[in-house]
Amino acid sequence: MQEIYNPHEYADLFPLITGDEFVELKSNIKERGLLNPVITLNGKILDGRNRFRACKEIGVEVKTVEYDGDNALADVLSWNLQRRHLNASQKACLAVELLPIYETEAKQRQVEAVKAGNVNRHNESPVKAKLPELAELAEQESAKPKEKQSRETAAVVTGASARYVSEVKRIQQEKPDAFELIKSGTKTIQDIKKEEKSEKLEVKKQELIKETANDIKENKPVIHHTDYGNLFHMLDKHSMDLLITDPPYSTDIDDIEGFVDDWLFDALDKVKETGRAYICIGAYPKELQAYLNKLSEQTRFIVDNPLIWTYRNTLGITPKNKYNLNYQVVLHLYTTETPELDTSITNEMFSVHDINAPDGRQGDRYHTWQKPDELAMRLIRHGSKVGDSVFDPFTCTGTFPIAAAKLDRESVGCDISEENLLIAEKRGCDVRFS
After folding, report:
1. 339 Rama class: left (phi>0) / alpha (psi -120 to 50) / beta
2. Element (H, E) at 56
3. Global pTM?
4. Distance in angstroms (rounded) separating the CA atoms of residues 278 and 394
5. Which runs of consecutive H residues, i.e. helices, occur in 39-161?
């Protein structure tokens, strides 16, 4: 019987069953015998490939009968669509594999109609044409694609969505391996589209990374793989023009008061008498209290009205007892000797800065709490000038030092996360690992 294990093209339209379903089929045949014989057509299996395989594996005799119907394709579709549990994506694959068959049939009907003289040329009544013209017209008609008509027919026959059929057709042409995964039921159209979206996003992300690295190749920020304490030891007192940083929030720090006490004044001690500071913090009451209480202990810096960075492109769960937070606070500090802000752009002179957060769907988000490049560029431009020194003791993936470098400032920073610094390095920073 091995010689007939050669599936007919119509049988091949359907995927072989696998896994538990095939195990169950073998168990049923072993228990009850082969109830439905394998149907063959011209020595090929038209229906029953799975039964044939199961019989061969468990040593049961294969019973065969020759197909005696008049429409093999219609029968194969009817048999399988009734007993197979195909998902919507698999039905679309089946429809796509029917397209060439239906298109061929449509062309044959056209040719036959042309030969019979039943062709409406230029909206005229069908007429008999001369023999040379018939041959030419038959060739032209047979070359015309009937894709739309065939697609609609295939969709109706298989119960597939016409939109899915079009999508699977594209996947078949562009990614044959992915098409086979959909046909087998291993993946769905949605799975493949998600993968394609991720691939496109990764390409876009790499393009942005490359573009950023190119922008700062002549003025790379120096980022140290160390903690803020070691960075402060590297910097001289009152040596930096601008402190701009985004430290961990109270949601990540158990003792926010102790954390603020540990780093804040040491960082401010590195800022010049003519310098400024921008410190991004969470808008949580205990975090605001921790920073404002600490700052009230000093008199060197003036604490400005807090800046607000608000964003509209993220949604949370609909609140019940409290409002969703869609902003963060930026503490702004300066001294009586600090030069004026550069807020010559009118809509940048206000305390509220409405800028979308980095969006993973756009390929420009590398970290959960990453600040937008526009906000970084804006604050650095406001609070410093070309050639100034900028430092960030919580660099993360490099947003603030990179923005400073783009604006022709000298920048230095540090972070303890090797993972974040590897991203900063790809973005063009001069990362110095310990």
Report:
1. beta
2. helix 49-58
3. 0.73
4. 12
5. 49-58, 72-83, 88-115, 131-143, 147-158
Assigned token pair, 270: 């590195």
Contacts of 312 (CB under 8 A, 6+ apart): 326, 354, 356
Say if residue 409 is in the same domain as residue 263. yes
**Extended strands (E) in 217-282:** 222-225, 240-245, 271-281
Asked whether 396 and 422 are in contact (CB, 8 A), the reply is: no
Q: N- to C-terminal Cα distance for the chain?
A: 70
pLDDT digits (tens, 9 = 90+) for 165-180: 999 999 999 999 999 9
Q: Determine the pLDDT at residue 1.
A: 38
Same-domain status, 50 and 98:
no
Q: What is the pLDDT of residues 287-323, one digit of tens each?
A: 999 999 999 999 999 999 999 999 987 777 777 888 8
DSSP state string for 359-417: -GGGT---STTPPPHHHHHHHHHHH--TT-EEEESS-TTTHHHHHHHHTT-EEEEEES-
User: Alpha carbon of 204 to those of 49, 198, 310, 365: distances in Å?
Assistant: 45, 10, 25, 11
Give the domain range for residue 265: 217-432
The SS3 of residue 33 is coil
Q: How far is CA 392 from the centre of its chain?
A: 31
Nearest to 309 by CA among 342, 331, 335: 331
**Same domain (yes/no): 224, 344:** yes
Length in residues, the chain: 434
d(CA 4, CA 49): 10
Specify the pairing of strand 327-334 against strand 307-310.
Answer: antiparallel
- Give the Cα separation of 387 and 409 in Å (integer): 5
Q: Give the residue carrying structure tokens 């699977």.
A: 168
Number of compact structural domains in the chain: 3
